[in-house]
C-alpha cells in the first residue's frame, strides 16, 4: 500500500477545535488533524503535553469540552468505548493491559470476540451464529499469532513472555478487533534499540498488509523519525507544528519545546 503522501486516500479521522480541561487546566486546546487512510502519524511532545488526552478523547474514554471528532465522516463525540471499538478504532495503552494468567492465544481470542459481544443467553445456547463467530475469532487469532511472530508462544501464559513479546501481544490484541484506525501509546517503551527497529518494521508491515491508518504516540525519536510520514508536535496542550520528520526536526518551536531554546 502506498503512503498517504503518494496518493491521498479518504479521510479516516478528523478533529477540529478539540478541547479538554481538567479542573481549569487545559490538557488539549483546539486540536486539529486530518488523517488519511493508510497514513502513519506520529504524535510527540514533552510529558503532560496532551498526547494521552488526545487518545482518550478519540477512543471515548473521556468526552471533549468542545470540538469535533469525526471517524470516516461521522461524529463520534459521546460514543462509548465499546461502540468505538465496533466502529473500527483500536488502541494500546502505556501500561500492560494483558490478561496475565491467560495464554497468548487466549488473550488474542478474547480481543477478537469483542467484535461480536455475546450475551449470557447466547453464550449458554451456543447457536450457529455463536459458533460461526467463535470460528472467525479463532481464524483471526491464528493469523495474528503468525503475523506478530508469536505462534511458537501461543500456549504460554502471557505473564511468562519476555517484555518485548508482551508489547507485540498488546498490538496483536488491538488488531484482533480488526480496526481501520490503530492508536499505539508508547509501543517502544522499555524496548532496546534492536527491538525498537524490529517493531518499527512490524508496524509498517501491518499498515502495508492491512491498510490500517496508524497514530503512534512515542518518546522514542528513532521510531518516530523512521516510521512516521507526518508528525504532530504538542506542547502544553497546543499543536505547535505538523509536518514531515525533516520539517519537524528543524522547526524552531519544536527545538524550543524540547531543548528550552530555538
Ligand atoms: N484525568 C485527569 N485528571 C486531571 N488532570 C489530567 C487528567 N488527565 C490528564 N491530565 C492533565 O492533563 C495534562 C495532559 O496530560 P496527558 O496525560 O494528556 O499528557 P501526555 O502528553 O500524554 O504526557 P506523558 O508523555 O507523560 O504521558 C497534564 O497536565 C495532566 O496532568
Automatic annotation (TrEMBL):
Q: Any idea what this protein is called?
A: Branched-chain amino acid transport system ATP-binding protein
CDD domains documented for this protein = ABC_Mj1267_LivG_branched
Keywords in alphabetical order, please: ATP-binding, Nucleotide-binding, Transport
SMART domains according to UniProt: AAA
Domain of life (superkingdom): Bacteria
ABC transporter domain spans which residues?
Answer: 13-261
Transport recorded as keyword = yes
Q: Matching Gene3D superfamilies, A to Z?
A: P-loop containing nucleotide triphosphate hydrolases
Q: Could you tell me which InterPro entries the record lists for this protein?
A: AAA+_ATPase (IPR003593), ABC_AA/LPS_Transport (IPR051120), ABC_transporter-like_ATP-bd (IPR003439), BCA_ABC_TP_C (IPR032823), P-loop_NTPase (IPR027417)
Q: Which GO terms describe its molecular function?
A: ATP binding
